[in-house]
From TrEMBL:
Name of this chain's protein: Adenosine deaminase
HAMAP family the UniProt entry points to: A_deaminase
Reaction it catalyzes: adenosine + H2O + H(+) = inosine + NH4(+); 2'-deoxyadenosine + H2O + H(+) = 2'-deoxyinosine + NH4(+)
SUPFAM superfamilies: Metallo-dependent hydrolases (SSF51556)
BP GO annotations: adenosine catabolic process; hypoxanthine salvage; inosine biosynthetic process; nucleotide metabolic process; purine ribonucleoside monophosphate biosynthetic process
Protein's UniProt keywords contain Repeat: no
Cofactor note: Binds 1 zinc ion per subunit.
UniProt organism field: Hoyosella rhizosphaerae
UniProt gene name: add
Site (Important for catalytic activity): H234
Residue numbers binding substrate: H22, D24, G183
GO cellular component: cytosol
Length: 364
């Protein structure tokens, strides 16, 4: 048997695992427009779907995380009702499945969806119902299988992280798999939310932390050493603790060694990292260096609307840039599945019954 040519169309057929994807960063442009009309939201820059799609991407290409985050004002504004949350969650599942994703953890901040009277619990109920509906549609209408769970996010500039952590624990048997903090890093260190993380540890709950994207090693150090995170959201700036020599050898500092030794997964998002200034270009992105140094790297989309991307396109960019083959993509996918906030036996089942057979066909 010969290997399937490695192009974008073929990558779409490969089973993929996504750990870092924001619900409010992945809406269809048409959905944004229709939901805005339904709630009389008149602040969209355009009501043409093609133009709006381009606007989100161009607005996100700022080189600044703070400016990048401003684009979410529009998507969050149209996700304030039970119907809108269910629809966005359902369409998210359908879009991921159509791209070959077999397991995904999609995150969002319930505290940002209360403007029209919903409670935190109602926000969770309707969003999780949307995920369930999407999985059912994919299974019954398309004959595919996908598991989508929710990462419940608290905003790091707010003061509700303990409350949101408790919310996550209340819903963890109903589709909420873990906790996260997100938002601007500078001035809002993870240690501000220690009570939430200590609570989660007492409850044996999983959590990831956005760290090492717009801010450097102190953010990563706090997330790991003080907060005890299971994964690092982005973590790109761990390269600040690695000295590369001209001959390609590397000297790792204490923090970089610890992250690698502990196999703390890095939720790397190549396109988004370029947009926010965490990397100058895909070619300059540290993904390949970290992969070669045996860090547990994973490929992620972050915000599919803002970055105008999919998992397949993120993988293809890495293939084009670094010359990866099918076995490399399989390794990154297994890295992600190993790192998922899913029970061990369920992770193993997806690896053995879906990921490995799927790549075996492509590798030939």
């Amino acid at each position: 048997m010969t290997s399937t040519p490695l192009d974008l169309d073929a990558i779409r057929l490969a089973p993929k695992v996504l750990l870092h994807d924001h619900l409010d960063g992945g809406l269809r442009p048409e959905t944004v427009i229709e939901l805005a009309d339904a709630v009389n939201y008149t602040e969209l820059p355009t009501t043409d779907p093609v133009e709006l799609k381009e606007w989100f991407r161009d607005a996100a290409d700022s080189g600044s995380l703070e400016l990048y985050l401003q684009t979410f004002g529009h998507t969050v504004a149209v996700m304030q009702t039970a119907e809108s949350l269910r629809r966005v969650a359902r369409e998210c599942v359908e879009d991921l499945a159509s791209d070959g994703v077999v397991y995904a953890e999609v995150r969002f901040a319930p505290e940002q969806h209360l403007d029209r009277g919903l409670t935190l619990d109602e926000v969770m109920e309707h969003t999780l119902a949307g995920f369930e509906e999407g999985m059912r549609v994919v299974r019954e209408q398309h004959g595919r299988s996908i598991v989508v769970q929710c990462l419940v996010t608290a905003m790091r500039h707010a003061a509700r992280s303990r409350e949101i952590a408790e919310l996550m624990v209340r819903f963890r048997d109903r589709g909420a798999c873990g906790f996260d903090i997100a938002g601007a890093e500078v001035g809002f260190p993870p240690s501000r939310h220690l009570d939430a993380f200590e609570y989660l540890q007492r409850e044996n709950a999983h959590f990831t932390i956005h760290a090492g994207e717009a801010f450097g090693l102190p953010s990563i150090h706090e997330a790991v050493a003080y907060c005890g995170c299971d994964r690092l959201g982005h973590g790109v700036r761990i390269m600040d603790d690695i000295k590369m020599s001209a001959d390609g050898t590397a000297k790792l500092g204490l923090l970089a060694n610890y992250v690698r030794d502990k196999r703390i997964p890095l939720e790397l998002c190549p396109s988004s990292n370029v947009q926010t200034g965490a990397a100058d270009s895909i070619a300059e992105h540290p993904f390949d260096k970290l992969a070669r140094l045996k860090f547990r790297v994973t490929v992620n989309t972050d915000n599919r609307l803002m970055s105008h991307t999919t998992m397949s396109e993120e993988m293809f960019k890495l293939v084009e840039t670094f010359g990866y083959g099918w076995s490399d993509l399989e390794r990154f996918t297994i890295n992600a599945m190993k790192s998922a906030f899913y029970r061990f036996d369920q992770r193993l089942e997806i690896i053995d019954n879906t990921i490995k057979p799927g790549y075996a066909v492509l590798i030939g």
